[in-house]
Amino acid sequence: MRAPLEIAAAPTPETASTRPGPTRPGRADPGPWQVEVSYGRLNAGDFTDIIFQTHKTTLETEQLGGIAFGREIVDIGYGFSIEAGAYFGRRFDEGGVEFALPITFVFDGFPWRDRLPMRLRAAIGPSYITKITPTERRKDDDNQGSKVLNMFNPEIEIGLPGAPEWSGFFRLHHRSGIFGLIDGVTGGSTYLVFGLRHRFDVDAFE
Question: Does the pTM of the predicted model rise above 0.90?
């Protein structure tokens, strides 16, 4: 006698998050959308000085405040994903409003993610500023600068274990001409930035 056919139940959000495979394991997903606020101070040296001579890093008085919106667009698997977003920033002392459209590469597949959610992020994309700041002119070999430069923002993000939708982050907010590839600009500016990020799903508002 043939055994009755068994139909598997549809996976719930809880079982889907713990299912083995290339997607994110062991964590409830708060949603693909995100919004953030940030504040930073200008680094007196070059971007490479922060990486290789961290102990010599000094801050100037120039300040940067920003907001950003974004969404995950690709879940590659094994902890890797790609996000797209928009950034708006205001430079309070030197002046100028910055607008950027970064693509962000994210890794969050750490083995301790259930105890301490953590992400490594790197954003890259075009950045436009309404006023070329004195710092960016000074750090360009030709003392010109450019309103359009490249944004490159490496970042570490730490989440709250009991509230995965909230996290804090530290970022290097960097604008430059990529060693002269953009409009011949050889310098740029780097801000040391702290911020708060909230993730959500628009379906939760329906």
Answer: no
